[in-house]
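dumping this here so i dont lose it again. seq + smiles for pyridoxal-5'-phosphate
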Amino acid sequence: MSEKIIYVDNAATTPTHGKVLEAMLPYFCENYGNPSSVYSLGRDNRQAVDHARGQVAKALNCLPQEVYFTAGGSESDNWAIKGTAHKLAAKGKKHLITTAIEHHAVLHSMAALEREGFEVTYLPVDENGLVSAASVEAAIRPDTALVSIMYANNEIGTIEPIAEIGAICRKKGVWFHTDAVQAVGAVPIDVQAQNIDMLSLSAHKLNGPKGIGAFYCRRGVLPTTLIDGGAQESGRRAGTENVPAIVGLGKAIELATSDIASKAAKLSAMRDYVIERIMKNVPEVKLNGHPTKRLPGNVNFSFKACEGESLLLFLDMKGICASSGSACTSGSLDPSHVLLAIGLPHEVAHGSLRISFGVQNTMEEAAQLCDILENVVEEVRRRSPLWHKNNNEINK
Ligand SMILES: *Cc1c(COP(=O)(O)O)cnc(C)c1O
């Protein structure tokens, strides 16, 4: 049995690409100037930041001036949501629309606004995790300030009809934000063609460093600022620029988006192999998320009578890093809000497993993963009173 780790939790974070690290390194000890300084050591850093801004803009098809660097996806989400609410409240717009399956950076920002007196509509999704564009249109009111709907879900991988929703919001004159943290680098994005006003992205989900992200904000869309201070980022996001990380984000997004089709083909081959094999070899298993409108690297299963946390522990002992659908690891025993929103009963949501492939994974790893997973599910079920009860009932 090899001791090698198989890392298939790329939706949680990804390893930094070697070329990204290489691009970042000079900006720590050699080229350490402050981009706001006038001497050449500072100017070099200004240029590096501008270059990275151009790389992000190219990936999204927007203007460099529409890209702001932040500390990651969470900050960008907070900025879009709280900044828009606070800006448009002055015009009497105190209603926001989102979905039940958003990342907590969105959901908890919305909850914070509710405590301030804003009203939020949480749109339901269907059994595949899809929100309907028609339900978005129906929910928009004269006092709606913002529609915020994620591009692709981080747990079940479902890709939402973003262009359709964007067209509706543009027609109705409502600002549209999308949390695209899981989508950038995985599927092609064009903020102009898709009528996206604001977008959140994060470097560490696309083989860049942690703690750096970007916020795309269309010209003329002006949410209030979150971080006040110096005049960095056109006066809209204060703080000395994290130059090495910004350079890393630029390089990572360039690499991730330069050859999206072949990357997606590689990831979806591993995804489809695992789905096919596990569905064939393991009894009582359900695939969560949309069968086709799904992220290339995402697999999410529910195994009947097979507790997710036990699965993870057994997999970990075999060197596999995956993730469970429940949030037990984060200190809560509640099953995932996403799995509940697609209609899974509590006990099924508890038996869920997310496998998320990344560019560094191989088909051999996918095959090894299946070998191990098939055994582990059997092992966990052998110890599960629920499983035996269930089987006895079937045998009666
Ligand atoms: C990871 C993630 C975030 C948070 O991004 P950070 O950079 O870790 O703050 C937000 N939304 C989604 C969908 C994510 O997957």
